Amino acid sequence: MVARRGRAWRRRQRRKHENRPVSLGHEKSFVRFFQWLHRNGCKNIPLKPAIFPETGRGMMVTKPLTNGELILTIPKRLLITLDDIMDSYLGPYIERADPQLTPTQALAIFLICEKHRGEKSFWYPYFDILPEEYSCPAFFTEDDFRLLPNSLRGKAKAKKYECHRTYKELEPFFKVLADLFPDKDDIFVFKNFRWAWSAIKTRAFDVFIGTKTWSHLRDIETPSPTMFPLIDSINHSAKAKIRYHYNDQSQCLESRTETVYRRHTELLNCYGRADNDNLLLEFGFVVPGNPADTVTFHLVEDILEHLQPENNELLERKILFLARNNLISDLTCGVTGVSPQMLTVLMVLLCEQKDEDFWEDLRRGRFEENGADDIRGRKAARRLLSQRLRSYSTTLEEDEKLIEEVTSPCGRLALLYGMEKKRLLGYALETLQHSAKVAIARSVLRKLFSR
Fold first, then answer.
1. Where are the extended beta strands (E) located within 227-361?
2. Structure confidence at residue 54 (pLDDT)
C-alpha cells in the first residue's frame, strides 16, 4: 500500500510547476541564520529567503515597501571587516607576513579559518547559508571554457589564473599558519581557497568601515572588501536601487530601497550598469535582455579587416580624423541596434570624398537619409553583424537544444552568455533591415510630394 502524501507536499509539488517563488524560510540553516541576525540587533527584517524562477535564490519581501523606506539596519558586529580580521587570532600572523598581504588575501584566509572552526565561529550561521560552489570563472572547467565564445574565453581564463596565482603566492604563508590547526592538513588547500576567493569576489562590498589604519597590509589605500551578511543575498537588477549608509553614531549599516515593492516580490539591487561580460567575469551570472549588454567590434581586427581599404594614405587620414573625434570607441550593437558611432565610422571609411569637411558632415549627421553613404554604411554593418554570427561554432537554435543537455552550472552559464550575444546580433540585424525599409519609404514619399 502506497502512503498517501499530505497537503503540504502537494502544495510544494504544484509550486514547482508555477511561475512563483518558493520560500526557503523553513530550512534549518536559514532559520538559524535569521535567529542569529535577530539576536545580534538586526530586528524587524521584512525579508525571507526564496527560490525565484528567473534569478534563483534571493530575498522575498514579506510586506509592501515604499520608496525611501528603511528596510535593514545591520550592526557592525555582524559584518566581517578588516578590523575584525586584524583584531582576531590571525592579526599577529598577518602583521609578520612577508611579503605583506592585501586586504582581499587577508579576508580570504580569515574566511577559510572561520569556516573550518564550524559552530565555534561567531559567523557560523552566515557561512552555513553560503553556497559551496560558485559559477564565476574560478570554478570553470576546460569543458565549460570551450562553451564560451572566443571573445570572452581569454578573459575568463585570466580570472581563473588570477585565483591560482594568488593561492600559489600565499602557500608559504599557509605553512606559517599550520600551528593554528595542528590536527588538520587539508584546511589551506586550493579548493577551500577558491571557495573563499569566489565568495569575496561575488559577494563582498568595497567600502571604508572602521577607524583603524593597518600599515602591515599592502594596497590599503583602496576601499577594503567587507562581507555583509543578508545584504549580499540580494540579487541584481538594473532597474532597482538600494541606498546604503553607514551610521557612525549607531555603528549600523542602514539600507533604504528606492524602489516600490509589493508583498511576496523579490527585493533587488543594482550592482552598477554592467554588461554581461562584466557580470559573468565578476559575479558569475548573466542577465537575459540586459539593457547594458553589447557586442563589441574592433576597428582593426573587425572593421578594417572586413573592408580591406586599398588607399593607405587616405585611410591613415581617416583614422586620424576618427581618433581626433573619439569615434573609434563604442563600436557596438546593443538592444537599440547598431551604435551611431559605428555607422559613422563605416560611412567615413567607405566614402570616396577626401575632404575632411565632408567627413565632419557625416559625423554630425548631415547626410541624405537613404543616400549613397547611408546605404553603404548600413550594408557594411549588416555584413559585419552577419559575419560575427557566422563566427560562432553553433547557432542560437543549436544552443537552445544543447543547454538542456549540459549539467554543469558553469557550462550552462557559458551557453547562456553566448545565446544572449547572438540574440543581440539578430535583433540589430532586424533593426537595420527595418530602418532601411523605413528610409526607402520616406524617400519615395518625399519624391511623390515634391512633384
1. 235-236, 242-247, 252-257, 266-269, 294-296, 332-334, 337-338
2. 85
- Alpha carbon 384 to its chain centroid, in Å, reads 27
Under 8 Å CB-to-CB from 121, ≥6 apart: which residues? 114, 115, 127
Average pLDDT over residues 173-179: 91
Q: Which distant-in-sequence residues (6+ apart) come within 8 Å of 388 by Cβ?
A: 295, 297, 302, 425
d(CA 116, CA 55): 30
> Rounded distance, CA 225 to CA 282, Å?
14
Q: How confident is the model at residue 2 (pLDDT cuts 50, 70, 90)?
A: very low
Task: Tell me what pLDDT residue 164 has.
Answer: 97
Measuring CA to CA, which residue among 199, 213, 251 is closest to residue 86? 213
Q: How far apart are CA 44 and CA 74, in angstroms?
A: 11
| Backbone angle region of 420, left / alpha / beta, with phi > 0 → left and psi within -120 to 50 → alpha | alpha
Please name the residues in contact with 67: beta carbons below 8 A apart, sequence gap of 6 or more.
257, 258, 259, 260
Model-level pTM greater than 0.90? no
374 grid coordinates: 547611408
CB atoms within 10 A of CB 62: 15
Alpha-carbon dihedral angle through residues 80, 86, 92, 98, given to the nearest 10 degrees? 90
CA–CA dist 29, 46 (Å, integer): 18
- Could you report the per-residue pLDDT of 237-289, keeping only the tens digit for each? 988 889 988 888 888 989 999 989 999 999 999 888 899 999 999 999 999 99
Q: Which helix (H) or strand (E) segment is 205 a member of?
A: strand 205-207
DSSP string, 115-135: HHHGGGSTTHHHHTTS-SS--
As a whole number of angstroms, the distance between CA 83 and CA 307 comes to: 57
Distance, CA of 383 to chain centre: 30
Hey, is 374 helix, strand or coil? helix
Backbone phi, psi, residue 338, to 5°? -75, 135
